[in-house]
Amino acid sequence: MLKQFVLLTVLLALAACAPDAPAAPPAVRSSARVVDSIFPPEEAMRRFRAGLLKVDSLSGGASTRGELVRRFVRAVEMQDTAELQALLLSRAEFAYLYFPASRFARPPLRTDPALLWFQMQMNSEKGIVRLLRRKGGADAGFRGHACEDEPVIEGENRLWERCTVRVADSAAVRWFGTVIERGGRYKMVGYANGL
After folding, report:
1. Phi-psi category of 117—alpha, beta or left, where left has phi over 0 and alpha has psi -120 to 50?
2. pTM for this one?
3. What is the pLDDT of residues 90-113, one digit of tens each?
4. Residue 111, Cα to own-chain centre: how many angstroms?
5. Are the beta carbons of 97 and 55 closer than 8 angstroms?
6. CA-CA distance, 91 to 48, in Å (whole number)?
7. With CB atoms 3.0 to 4.6 Å apart as the test, which of 39, 81, 106, 186 could cross-link to 44 if both were Cys?
8. What is the torsional sign of CA 115, 120, 126, 129?
9. What is the structure's pLDDT at 9?
10. What pLDDT, on the 0 to 100 scale, is given for residue 170?
């Protein structure tokens, strides 16, 4: 222990007697700019829409909310993924009809459309996979559905939220997310659910 103390003292004394190290060269100021990867909302929207055909109305879907939900339940029972896709809001419909009027396009909730679309797709995929595993391939015994009494109005969109489905073997549960109504057509915004 004494040897270690003596060695440490000698090393400190030698370090104190050593000539000063040459000064570091002055910092060179870089002319490169810092680039922010966040785009202004208009540019983010332009980039998200790149390659999409402009739409001015919902296509497919159903002419009533009840018809949409019945077709959805039937598609789950039949494990008809093509029909489930046809009932769902498309990327172009999201870009041109849903997002521009949504609360997510304005402060304080302003979100990049690509990020919101990605989140919705991931939650929708997770929800529909769970639903198909639990309820797909069998008669669910559909009894009806219910949503909030009044829709959320965003521009020309009427959003029916907190919808539930009643089936034979359970109480009312969420099988899908929001339903969008626009111009007399109804589609599913996503398949995120309570399962």
Report:
1. alpha
2. 0.78
3. 999 999 999 999 999 999 989 999
4. 10
5. yes
6. 9
7. 39
8. negative
9. 42
10. 77
* Nearest-angstrom CA–CA distance, 97 and 187: 12
Total length of the chain: 195
Q: Is residue 150 within 8 Å of 157, Cβ to Cβ?
A: no
The residue type at 32: A
- Per-residue pLDDT, averaged over 24-53, amounts to 69
Can you give the three-state secondary structure of 33-73, one letter per residue? CCCCCCCCHHHHHHHHHCCCCCCCCCCCCECCHHHHHHHHH
Look up residue 157 and give its two tokens: 């969109």
CB 72 within 8 A of CB 176: yes
How many other C-beta atoms lie within 10 A of the C-beta of residue 90?
19
**Two tokens, residue 8:** 């440490």
On the question of pLDDT at 15 being above 60, the answer is no
DSSP 107: T
- The span from the CA of 90 to the CA of 84, in Å, is 12
For helices 41-49 and 113-135, what crossing angle results, to 10°?
50
Q: Tokens 């939650």 belong to which residue?
A: 123
Helix (H, G, I), strand (E, B) or coil at 91: helix
pLDDT at 38: 75
